[in-house]
Structure formats: structure tokens, C-alpha cells
């Protein structure tokens, strides 16, 4: 069905993405959608060739033109998928260096009228910008407003934006535009540009409903994993109380955007929150000298402000005309705020009166980031810490508008570049600049002279800010472990305050108004008050605000349960009813798991940790109850995506992807009997990175899936295909490597072994089955998508088998499918679902963002039903020969008769009038109340009568099978004849 939505986010008219240039747009389509909403369908579509039917290539498309010469290579006319007609348009932009677009021909418009720009989109990654160019009668461009559209990945949706023609406008062009900021892979179709109407729009489906409408057997179980992933803190005062300001990460595509929170420092009480609509998070946040708080969001690149006088949060719109990532922030003079961003290390200043964001300058060519800014008010001088390649500090006079001078780099502070590319944090206390560079502290005077620098410092300066102590001669910061240290500026020495806050210092302020210097601060875990005179904590109150976070993975747990891990932290036990999920432990990020002897073993990012959870001692509040047994830091390992248990050797195998900048992955082998472990690296294969692991009890071998992608930031190893690697744990050698899809694919993930010893997995789009007895691998179905060039893929597919029906369930590329090995048929169940796991009853748990769903797998016998009455039956039921009638949860009056050759499956039913069966093929009655006699004779197949309440007599005779109560006794009020329960 068509799922339309109207973008309500603001834009800055007249701010172009490319000066003086038109941007091009492409509309994508998919498997047939319903028609456009009635309002759009009734209005005239001003676009020609709106469904891209006329033209076999981009250059041949009628009424559309590439933005630049050569832009056509990013657009492809395709016949699959489509949402309307026979053709659609695919945009595949892997170019990070520049923008590209597709522009419509000019169409007439009327000034002052609102116009709808809508289209169908099937998005795989990235996002498009939609731009409308308005021109006057002389052809001069008047404005070019734009919107950024993000539809749900993996399913067709209709995106709708609205633009108003400005005064003087007589014509317009629309464009699909890719800004050249990472991979964009999307298909568009059935574009529309015409007068917007006032007709009621179809209500947009919620993220949950978008999943539920796809299959009636999918149930929503809530958002089980919550997290506390805060931004940097700012300290303020409201109503005489010291407060902490922070933004907390959310997941807007799941309906849980980032949230801004105000917390009372002394008590820990949450005073106020507001949702930051459309945002995942804010990387930085700071308070201006007028008390108002500013932050920049991602991934929507907005600027927000909180005003304590009104208690309101305000969306101030996009920071600029490109997708900015806000990092450094510093208050300026007169309520202004400085902002440093990526890309191009651009420096902005916010005017507190007009809310205009002024671009002051780019710091320099080849510089990417501004992570740190500090303003010195007495001299109106701005200090900027840049990075991305090498760390540098700059001095800019006249409040950022004057002369720019490099005052610190590796030439002035030897070995400054070691282990880092950034100046991470920077503050000014007194007449000293204190900067964090690779967890070391660099101290400069205001002219840039080095006052303190020890390149051999390790893990010395933690946290977000250095703050002024009781006087301007002292600065306070946190070191490794949470101890607060002080820096004596005149003496140029460091000393301990004697205070341990249990985590790094985010921000704080010292209040001496009462005569005693009290530090009101925010740490990584709490808000606290510390007495600097006595060196004691007065209070340390945990911040209890938490909200749903993205589900990172789903794992089968002990006793048939299911657990969920969160991004970037979080671990919770699933309540299968979806009512009361277990508390979330703020630890992670867990990528793989295995069960042994009732305990869970987890692979955790980073450093490829191997952790253990014992349910008998587990306390979600105490992260130490999930200890790390070993890690892979010495072996250069980071992301442990695969894990399996071998009960025959009592070993657990954990595969891993290399750390940042490296390409050699590894396999860890943990011996449960001795507690010892070994890492194998090149023994598994040169530059192989392991993303999936499965143990096969039929042949005693371990199966590993690898990927061509190493750690982030690594140079490609030269591998062109991921492999299915067969490993012998007894000899610790590789037996063979296989291309399981028959030809090269970049990654092999989701490995699983069925009861017959067949190894199943996903190689990019292909579901394959490898039979060790024949040594042959066959592609069984298409369940995902091909990988896009230039994009890193690690864990991609999840493959599980349900014992309830013997079928294979797969999530891959946001597609949820089922494959029946008996028939070879594969069916798509739903789109938009990412990870999956099967519980002990055979049901499948699947995730979409922060939301969890359960797919109710129909048991084999119920899957064979020929009839499933849904409504109560008033006139009795007769089951004929050859029929399999399944009754669940209804009332049957006038009794049930099963004729010879018929089969009855009944549960949770109310039967009035008894049950009579003679010569039935099968009788199974469970948890049912029967009023009347039951007589079952000459049954040729199964005879189950379990947990029932019978108000009448029961007779059994000449049945092929003895009555089976499955361990759940029946209550019978009348006489019983010939019915012996097993």
C-alpha cells in the first residue's frame, strides 16, 4: 500500500546547495504500489515522463537532464524494481568528491501557490535531497528551497514535500540530488509535481504499523533495549538550582528521536525534557552567556536552542546548505555561539537576535574537522582545534573574523600526531589553553607558547571539559578511572583533589557563593556535588533518563529465551509477551553470542571482548556481573561478529574483524575446561575477517564466513570475495575454502547448520546450502541485495531454523523471508526488518530499529489445515473425509462429528454438545472445555486429548494409538471407558 508522508521540517529558502547551479533529481519506483493519495491524483501533474517510461538511458529520458556532464553515469533506467509502469530510475552515487543530480524540464507555476513534490522511493542506503528551482519571467533564479527525504530502508514508500512559489516566480524545475557525502543507493518512480491541495491526507503509518500491516502473524513486542548515550553536558542555573543540560541519543526511524533533558544536579531529579524531532543525537552542546543552550544534531544537520526562561526547545533549521556534522561549540560574546563542523572544517557563528548562522571561514585546505573551540572574551580571540589528518590549534583574532595563525602542531609540540588525528577538547582557564590530544594534555599560553607537554603521557586527560577550580589559578579535569585532578597554573603542576566521581568529567562549575567551594558537575554516569575543600563527594546521583535504542543484534538464550543487544550499549532479556522486558544493562556493544551450560557468552565490540553472563549472578545494574574473560587487543581485533559452541570438544569459537586501519581478522578458541584461549590469525587465511561461525556436529568441523572488508579506515586487502572456510578444530587447520554462491560474493554471513548437517548461509543476496557429504553448495533463493561498491559490509544476514515447522527463516538487507527446504519455495514475509533469532518454541523474533516483533510460526500440523473457522459455530460442525479442520479459541454449539478419514485439531475451544469421531485420520484436542459425551473410535493416526475439561462421559475403542495427554491431565466428570492415558 502507499505510505505517504509530508515533510514538515523547515528549510532556508534562497540558500543553495551549489552556487548558481541547478540540481538534478531522480524518482525511484518498486514492486507495484497503490496509486498516489487521492489529493495528488486529482491535481494535474506538471511533470512530463514522471515514471521514466520514455527513454532507455538517462541521456535519452524525455523531459529530464543530468545536472552536470557525466552525471548520467550515476543514474540508470531499470525495469526492476518498479512501482508504476514498466520503468523506474535508480540512483547509485558512490562518489564522495562531488554532487550529482537529475533535473526536470521547466514547468509553469504561480507565485504564492504551494506545490507538492512527491515520488515513490525504494531506499537501500543514503538519502536524496529534493530541490525546487523557481525562476522569474526573465529566467533568473529567485530561490531554490530543498528538503532531505529519508524513507524506510528496504520497502517502497511515498515521500511528499511541499514548496511555495515565491513572489515573481513563473516557472520551476525540480531535481533529485545527491550531495556526494557517502553512498546513495535508491530507486525512484512515479514522480509528481503539482498544486498541493487542502484535501485530507492519508495518515502516515507509524514505524510499528508499517511492519504490522505486512503480515498478520507479526506481533509487536515493544522496544526492549534502552540506553543512556548522552552528549557533552553544559551546566546552568534554573530557579536557583544548579542543573545539567544534555541530549540523549535516540532512533527517530523507530519513533524515538533524540531527547534533550534538564537534570537537577543536587538531587538527580529530571526537571524537564523535550524531543528533538528527526534527530538521532547531538555530538556537542554548550551554553551561551545569556543562559540559552545550543546544540547541533545528526543526521539531519539542524541547529536547536533551549531557553530556560520559557522551558522550550526550538528547531532553528539547518545550519547551512550542506550536511554539516556539528562537533566543536563555544559560547562567544553577547549570547552568541561558535560552531565547528565537518566537512571542510567550517567555522560558524550564531547571532542570538536574528538566529542567522554566519559562515566565518574554512580553517584550511585539507582540514576536515573542528572538534574543539575556545573563546577568550577579554581579547576577543577565538582558538580552534582542527583535525581529521593531523591535530592543529589556530588563533583567530577579532572574534573569528581576523587574522588566523597556526600556534600548535607537531613542530611546536613534538610527537603531537602520535596516536591521534584530532584536538579532541579545548578550554581556557585563566590565561591558559588546555587541550586534549590523544588523552594527553597540552597546555599553551594565549600566544601559543607551550607551557606543558608530555608526549609520553597515556590515558591522562579524560572527559569533555576542563573547568575552573575555586580560583582562576586552578583548573580541574578527570583522569583514567574517574579521579579528579587539579592543575596549578602558576606552578605548572598537577595534584589530586582526592575526589573520585566514578567516570569521566563531562562538565561542571564551581560555586563559592556559600563560602565553601562546591563543584556541581556531570560525569559519564551521574550528576554530582563535590566539596573541593575537604576532597569529598557530597552527592553522586545516577542519571536515570534512558530511552529506546537501536537493536544491534538478537540472540537465542538459555532455556529457550531471547536476548537483545543495543547500539552503542545495552543488553536486555526479552519478555516474550512484550509486557515487561528485563532491565537494560548499560554495557555492550554485543555482536555475537553462544550458550553453554546455562550461561551466555558474548562477543563485544571493541577490542573483540569475550564476556560471560551467568543468569544466577547476573545483575543488570552491575556491569561487573558480565566480566570479560579475554580480548583481542594484542592481536589487533575489534569486532567479534560470529560465535559458536562445540559441545563435543567443550570449546567456543569467536570470529572477529580487525581493528581500525588493519585487515587481518582472527578466530579465537576458548577451552571451557581449562579456561585458556588461543587466537588464530593468518592460520585462518591471510587478511580474512570472520563475520560468522557455526559448528557442525555431523562432521565435527567448524564453518567460518568471511568478508573482504577489514577494519574501518583500512586499505583494501585485495581480496575480491568472502569465503566459506571449513576448519578442523582437532588439527586447527583449514580444510578447504569455498565460494558458496558458485561465484564470488564479498561476504558470507548468517551461518547455520540444520539437523541433517547441511550448512546454510547468506552470500550477499543469495541464500545457499552447502552439503558436506557431497561437497556441493547450491543457491536456494534470493533473500537480500548485492553489496554496493565502496561500502563496508560486515554482519549482513541472519539464518535460523524453526523446529516448529522445519523451515529456514532469513533476515538480509532489511528483508525477512522464509524458505521451505521440502518444496524449495521462498516467500518474502516483510520488508524493513534487520536482525532475527528463533526461540525455544520456534517463533522468530525480528527487529526494526529500536522496535521488536515476533513472527508466530505456525506449527506443522496447523500449517496443513484445510479449514480454520474464525467465528463461532452455532449449528454444529461436521468434518468430512480428507478435511483437516483446525479450531482455535471459538465456541462450537451442537457438537462436533468427525467422519472416517477426517482430522480434527482443536485448542482453547468451548464445545457444547460433545465430540463424536469414528474412523478419523487424526484427533488432537487440547485445553478445551467440552459439555457432552466424547466418543473416539477406530482412529488411524494420532490421538491426543490433553488438558481438557469434559463434563460428560468419555469412550475410546479400537484406536491405532493410545490416548496421549502430553503430561497434562484431563478432568472428566462422567464415566470413562477404554481410554488409557499415556
Describe the structure.
By secondary structure, the protein is an all-beta fold. The chain is built from 3 helices and 85 strands. Strands 2, 5, 6, 8, 9, 10 and 12 form a 7-stranded antiparallel beta sheet that branches. Strand 49 and strand 50 (609-613) form a beta hairpin. The longest helix is centred in the N-terminal third of the chain and has 6 residues, at 207-212. The model is unreliable at 1-41 (pLDDT under 50).
List the helices and strands and how they pair.
Elements (H helix, E strand, L loop, with lengths): L3 E3 L31 H5 L21 E3 L8 E4 L9 E6 L6 E5 L2 E2 L5 E12 L2 E8 L5 E3 L2 E4 L6 E9 L6 E8 L5 E12 L11 H6 L5 E5 L3 E2 L6 E5 L2 E8 L9 E7 L5 E7 L4 E7 L5 E6 L3 E6 L4 E7 L6 E7 L5 E6 L3 E5 L6 E6 L6 E8 L4 E7 L4 E5 L7 E5 L16 E5 L2 E6 L2 E6 L4 E4 L8 E7 L5 E5 L4 E6 L4 E8 L4 E7 L6 E6 L2 E6 L4 E7 L4 E2 L2 E6 L5 E5 L4 E3 L16 E7 L2 E6 L4 E5 L14 E3 L6 E10 L4 E8 L7 E6 L5 E4 L8 E8 L4 E7 L16 E5 L4 E6 L9 E6 L5 E5 L2 E6 L4 E7 L14 E5 L6 E5 L2 E6 L4 E7 L4 E3 L5 E5 L2 E5 L4 H4 L13 E3 L4 E5 L2 E3 L2 E3 L4 E5 L2 E3 L2 E4 ...
Offer a concise description of the structure.
With 982 residues, this protein is mainly β. Helices cover 2% and strands 47% of the residues.
Give me some keywords for this one:
982 residues; mainly beta; six-stranded mixed β-sheet; 2% helix; globular; disordered N terminus
Amino acid at each position: 500500500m502507499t505510505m505517504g508522508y509530508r515533510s514538515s521540517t523547515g528549510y532556508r529558502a534562497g540558500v543553495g546547495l551549489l552556487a548558481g547551479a541547478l540540481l538534478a533529481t531522480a524518482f525511484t519506483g518498486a514492486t507495484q504500489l497503490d496509486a498516489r493519495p487521492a489529493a495528488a491524483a486529482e491535481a494535474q501533474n506538471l511533470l512530463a515522463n514522471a515514471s521514466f517510461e520514455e527513454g532507455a538511458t538517462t541521456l535519452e529520458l524525455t523531459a529530464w537532464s543530468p545536472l552536470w556532464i557525466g552525471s548520467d553515469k550515476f543514474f540508470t533506467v531499470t525495469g526492476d524494481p518498479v512501482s508504476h509502469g514498466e520503468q523506474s530510475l535508480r540512483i547509485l552515487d558512490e562518489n564522495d568528491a562531488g554532487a550529482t543530480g537529475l533535473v526536470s524540464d521547466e514547468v509553469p507555476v504561480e507565485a504564492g501557490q504551494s506545490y507538492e513534490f512527491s515520488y515513490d522511493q525504494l531506499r537501500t542506503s543514503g538519502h536524496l535531497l529534493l530541490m525546487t528551482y523557481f525562476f522569474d519571467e526573465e529566467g533568473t533564479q529567485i530561490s531554490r528551497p530543498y528538503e532531505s527525504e529519508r524513507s524506510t530502508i528496504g520497502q517502497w514508500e511515498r515521500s511528499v514535500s511541499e514548496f511555495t512559489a515565491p513572489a515573481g516566480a513563473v516557472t520551476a524545475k525540480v531535481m533529485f540530488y545527491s550531495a556526494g557525502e557517502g553512498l546513495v543507493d535508491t530507486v525512484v518512480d512515479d514522480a509528481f509535481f503539482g498544486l498541493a491541495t487542502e484535501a485530507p491526507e492519508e495518515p502516515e503509518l507509524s514505524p510499528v504499523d508499517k511492519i504490522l500491516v505486512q503480515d498478520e502473524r507479526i506481533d509487536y513486542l515493544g522496544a526492549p533495549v534502552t540506553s543512556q548515550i548522552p552528549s557533552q553536558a553544559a551546566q546552568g542555573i534554573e530557579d536557583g538550582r544548579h542543573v545539567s543540560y544534555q541530549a540523549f541519543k535516540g532512533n527517530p526511524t523507530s519513533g524515538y528521536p533524540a531527547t534533550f533533558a534538564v537534570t537537577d544536579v543536587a538531587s538527580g531529579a529530571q526537571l524537564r525534557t523535550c524531543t528533538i524531532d528527526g534527530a538521532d543525537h547531538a555530538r556537542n552542546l554548550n551554553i551561551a552567556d545569556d543562559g540559552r543552550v545550543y546544540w547541533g544534531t545528526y543526521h539531519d544537520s539542524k541547529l536547536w536552542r533551549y531557553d530556560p526562561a520559557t522551558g522550550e526547545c526550538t528547531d532553528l533549521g539547518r545550519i547551512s546548505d550542506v550536511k554539516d556534522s556539528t562537533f566543536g561549540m563555544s559560547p562567544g560574546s553577547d549570547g552568541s555561539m561558535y560552531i565547528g563542523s565537518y566537512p571542510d572544517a567550517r567555522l560558524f557563528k550564531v547571532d542570538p537576535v536574528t538566529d542567522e548562522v554566519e559562515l566565518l571561514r574554512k580553517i584550511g585546505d585539507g582540514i576536515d574537522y573542528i572538534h574543539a573551540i575556545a573563546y577568550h572574551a577579554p581579547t576577543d580571540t577565538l582558538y580552534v582545534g582542527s583535525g581529521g589528518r593531523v591535530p592543529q590549534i589556530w588563533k583567530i583574532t577579532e572574534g573569528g573574523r581576523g587574522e588566523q595563525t597556526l600556534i600548535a602542531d607537531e613542530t611546536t609540540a613534538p610527537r603531537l600526531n602520535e596516536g591521534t588525528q584530532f584536538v579532541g577538547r579545548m578550554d581556557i582557564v585563566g590565561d591558559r589553553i588546555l587541550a586534549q590530544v590523544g588523552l594527553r594534555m597540552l597546555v599553551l599560553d594565549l600566544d601559543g607558547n607551550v607551557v606543558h607537554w608530555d608526549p609520553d603521557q597515556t590515558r591522562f586527560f579524560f572527559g569533555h571539559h576542563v573547568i575552573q577550580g575555586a580560583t582562576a589559578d586552578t583548573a580541574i579535569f578527570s583522569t583514567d578511572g574517574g579521579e579528579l585532578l587539579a592543575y596549578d597554573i602558576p606552578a605548572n603542576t598537577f595534584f589530586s583533589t582526592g575526589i573520585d566521581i566514578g567516570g569521566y568529567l563531562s562538565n561542571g562549575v564551581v560555586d563559592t557563593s556559600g563560602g565553601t567551594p562546591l563543584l556541581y558537575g556531570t560525569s559519564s554516569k551521574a550528576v554530582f556535588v563535590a566539596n573541593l575543600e575537604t576532597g569529598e563527594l557530597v552527592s553522586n546521583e545516577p542519571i536515570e533518563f534512558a530511552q529506546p535504542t537501536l537493536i544491534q543484534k538478537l540472540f537465542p538464550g538459555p532455556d529457550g529465551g531471547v536476548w537483545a543487544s543495543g547500539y552503542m550499549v545495552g543488553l536486555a532479556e526479552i519478555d516474550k509477551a512484550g509486557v515487561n522486558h528485563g532491565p537494560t544493562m548499560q554495557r555492550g556493544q554485543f555482536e555475537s553470542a553462544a550458550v553453554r551450560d546455562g550461561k551466555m557468552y558474548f562477543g563485544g565490540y571493541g577490542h573483540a571482548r569475550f564476556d560471560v553472563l551467568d543468569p544466577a549472578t547476573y545483575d543488570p545494574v552491575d556491569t561487573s556481573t558480565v566480566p570479560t574473560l579475554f580480548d583481542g587487543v594484542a592481536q589487533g581485533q575489534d569486532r567479534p561478529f560470529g560465535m559458536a559452541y562445540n559441545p563435543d570438544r567443550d570449546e567456543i569459537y569467536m570470529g572477529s574483524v580487525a581493528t581500525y586501519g588493519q585487515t587481518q581478522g582472527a578466530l579465537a578458541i576458548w577451552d571451557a575446561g581449562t579456561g585458556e584461549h588461543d587466537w588464530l590469525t593468518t592460520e585462518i587465511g591471510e587478511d580474512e575477517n570472520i563475520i560468522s561461525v557455526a559448528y557442525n556436529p555431523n562432521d565435527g568441523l567448524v564453518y567460518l564466513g568471511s568478508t573482504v572488508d577489514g577494519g574501518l579506515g583500512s586499505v583494501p586487502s585485495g581480496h575480491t570475495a568472502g569465503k566459506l572456510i571449513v576448519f578442523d578444530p582437532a588439527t586447527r587447520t583449514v580444510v578447504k575454502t569455498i565460494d558458496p554462491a558458485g561465484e564470488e560474493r564479498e561476504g558470507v554471513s548468517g551461518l547455520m547448520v540444520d539437523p541433517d548437517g547441511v550448512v546454510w548461509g547468506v552470500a550477499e543476496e543469495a541464500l545457499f546450502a552447502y552439503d558436506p557429504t557431497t561437497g556441493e553448495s547450491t543457491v536456494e533463493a534470493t533473500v537480500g541485495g548485492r553489496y554496493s561498491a565502496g561500502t563496508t559490509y560486515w554482519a549482513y544476514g541472519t539464518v535460523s531454523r524453526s523446529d516448529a515447522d522445519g523451515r529456514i527463516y532469513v533476515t538480509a538487507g532489511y528483508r525477512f523471508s522464509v524458505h521451505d527446504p521440502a518444496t524449495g519455495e521462498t516467500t518474502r514475509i516483510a520488508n524493513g526488518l534487520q536482525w532475527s533469532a528463533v526461540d525455544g518454541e520456534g517463533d522468530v523474533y525480528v527487529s526494526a530499529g529500536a522496535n521488536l516483533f515476533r513472527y508466530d510460526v505456525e506449527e506443522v500440523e496447523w500449517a496443513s489445515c484445510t479449514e480454520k473457522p474464525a467465528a463461532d459455530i452455532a449449528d454444529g460442525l461436521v468434518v468430512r473425509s480428507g478435511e483437516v479442520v483446525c479450531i482455535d479459541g471459538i465456541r462450537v454449539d451442537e457438537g462436533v462429528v468427525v467422519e472416517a478419514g477426517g482430522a480434527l485439531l482443536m485448542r482453547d475451544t468451548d464445545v457444547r454438545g460433545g465430540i463424536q469421531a469414528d474412523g478419523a485420520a487424526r484427533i488432537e484436542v487440547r485445553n478445551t472445555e467440552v459439555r457432552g459425551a466424547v466418543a473416539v473410535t477406530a482412529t488411524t493416526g494420532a490421538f491426543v486429548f490433553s488438558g481438557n475439561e469434559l463434563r460428560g462421559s468419555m469412550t475410546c475403542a479400537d484406536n491405532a494409538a493410545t490416548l496421549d495427554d502430553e503430561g497434562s491431565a484431563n478432568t472428566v466428570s462422567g464415566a470413562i471407558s477404554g481410554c488409557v492415558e499415556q
